[in-house]
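Anyone? Bumping this.
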Amino acid sequence: MSIRLQLLIVALTTLILPWAGCQYARELENALRVSQENALESTADTIALALSAQPARVFHGSEDSRPYAEEQGDQYVFALRTAPLLDGYHEDWGVAAEPQRLPSPDGYGARVQLGSTDRYLFLYVQVDEPRFVAEPANPDVDKDRFDRLDMTLEQPDGSLESYFFATGAPGLIEAQKTVIQADGSAHIATEPRIQAYWLETAGGYHLEARVPLALVGSRLWVEAREASGRKAGFAADSARGGRLFMATSGLGELLATFIRPGTRATVVDANGLKLGTSGALRAADLEDDSSGTWYRRFVTVDTSAWPVQASLPDRMTGKSITAALAGLPAAEWLRSSGGAQDLLLLAAAPIAVDGRTRGAVVLEQSGDQLLDLRDRALARLFDLTLLATALAVVFAFSLATFISVRIGRLRSAADSAVGNDGRIRLEMPESGSADEIGALARAFERLLARLDEHARYLRTLGGKLSHELRTPLTIVRSSLDNLESEGVRGDQRGYLTRAREGTGRLQSILAALGAASRVEESIKQAERVSFDLADLARAAVAGYRDAFPHARFALDVPADGCLLFGAPELIAQMLDKLVENAVDFTPPEGTITVKLARADGKYELSVENDGPSIPDAMLGRLFESLFEHRQGSDDKPHFGLGLYIVRLIAEFHDGTALAVNRPDGNGAAFVVSLPMI
Amino acid sequence: MKKSIAIVEDEPALRENYAAALSRHGYQVKTYANRKVAMQAFTTRLPDLAIIDISLEDEAEGGFDLCRDLRAMSAELPIIFLTARDSELDAVSGLRLGADDFLTKDVSLPHLAARVAALFRRIDALRLPQNATDMVRRGALVMDAGKMQTTWNARPVTLSLTEFWIVHALALNPGHVKNRQQLMDAANVVLDDSTITSHIKRLRRKFLEIDPAFDAVQTVYGMGYRWVE
């Protein structure tokens, strides 16, 4: 894995920051939630305390704490904001609840709902009446059968008064009641204070009635009766049922003084029925910031297990309310029955009057504020951490690139530190840097310097060796000379001759070993002059023809002058070595060609010879010092110094020496390129 | 009277071998192991010829110092360097200090004896009356082999013995190419090719100091050198 990739991965670990941020946000949200819970709970407590000091403004009567029994005809009376129009429709009541079905022994369908303003009680009844039977004019209460709606009121003084609604034609009507006269006969009288609207519909009729609160005590029974005798509802029974559970008028306004916007306060009685409500929850406005909410999925507290808000129009239920009604303040988080995202905080506190819990204050608050707060914090957090991550990645990547480029430079320098010619380049890039890479480069330099020292030692070893061995060899030889001069016996002469041969060979080996250092030295002292290379080659080849009478030489040089600024003696010496080498490897009848040609700013001086080709593996190493592999045609020791000298001289002239095999496989060519000056 | 030769050589075996060989040739040989001992003896009496090694015991260049001191004591005393050091630098230094010959230890004892004899002959020749054939005149060049004197355009050129004989050999047959071996034979020296080259360079420079247009010693690559008039 490249350093770049590694650092990139390291940089990506900064992505842990947003994750940590999410964790933190979640903690924050929990903390906020708890604090909101506490705050709301204490507010609820405060309101409850305030309300318990003035029970008259909260509770209607003393009966309210008895259990609410819907099946016995107990009715909840919705608090109406404004008095509705008497028109047979109850949509203008502003009550979300459907009318409540009245029990019927024979399947007569009727539903009822009650509402009140501060002056009137409103009654709304829907009756499924497939066949409407109208009230005859001047009906006989005992005999005539027609569709009617009975309503019995318990009057404020406790007596019961029964009315009925019936009509011959739909429209605005008045309630009627049977009046028993002194003679015992009954006749029907209208009650103008109780007005109603009879609306005929496709499936029956609706009745919307208005009763002044002055006529109403605490009970009311409604019974719908069909002409055929079927009925639904509750017959008046002073012993039980029919109680009215009314919202307390003015309570809403009272509550409004306690609460802040965005909070809804509700007072419930011991049954959980709403006595008054004020305020509205802040509408969820999730649409306009949906862009900032995509990361909610990472941070949202799992609310799926939370209870869903029980949204009943007439009462409040739930754990907290049950607890509050049992005397313990409580708060809980609910999921709104509306949107899945809406959270709702509900706090309930008991209202205790004279040591008895008579109801509870319920405060509701949207959790959206909290979400907003969290989202805003999160959005900032995300932006910042993503920016940090991006910066970290960019920085890490740049750093990695910088480092890997430098290491790459070092590597390629290390690769090429030892050149093809065996020379060692001592300078490394980056060695001036103060960091670890610089230290590495310097370590490389030290290593190379030692290597170079060693290589230099090896190069000079031959010269030193030949020098050191020369004295003992001279002792042997001079001793042999003396021995010979003193006279030896004829049979001993053979040994002497052999000893001489041995020392002779040793001497030539030592001479060869020392030659390289001598040449290096003379090269150092060589002087450059301007001379004609072609002339030199011509003269030299003429000389070779004399020196090697058995070899055949061919010459191929340009007719015009080839001026070179260099050391002619050295060039001649170089040519000597190349020709000597060629002579060694040329078979009898083979030809040695000395060629001089110009090629883009260079002179190419080459010596080619017929004969065996050179193995490829050796081509590049022929010019090394003391490299010897080729078996020459004579018994002279071959230490490859000749070609090493060729290289030294070529390099002195800023040129190169190269060995190649001839394309036709017959022989080799040694080419020296010398730049023209 | 026997000619006396001083051998200053720190290697005992070699010293004894050389002494034995030269004694056999009829010379009176004295051997010294280091410069101090040698100088003590030389202040008392100078030998007729000195053979000196360059490195003497703990003095790496002791031979050079000795040569300088000897030359200061006598301008004519023939001095031969006989050393294992064969670099051109050493040879040139030695010759520049006034040595008459520079031999490497590759030289055989008979050859050494021959060189010593040749040197004595040359010294003797200096003392003989001038012989006409010893005079060489080639244009601006005049060489007196008897006095070992050279002039160019009537101005003296101070050549060493070896250089003198090289120029002498070349000038004797103008136009003829002399290869290195021939030059070595003429100068009675055993030198390798590069030392001959450096001798040629040095003597050219000496002529050039007198006459910047000097171009009489020509290199014939691959063959040798010739005198051009």
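Late reply, but here is one note on the structure posted above: Chain A touches chain B at residues 467, 470-471, 474-475, 477-479, 481-482, 485, 507, 511, 514, 517-519, 521-522, 525, 527, 535-536, 539-544, 546-547, 568-569, 571-573, 575-576 (CB under 8 Å).
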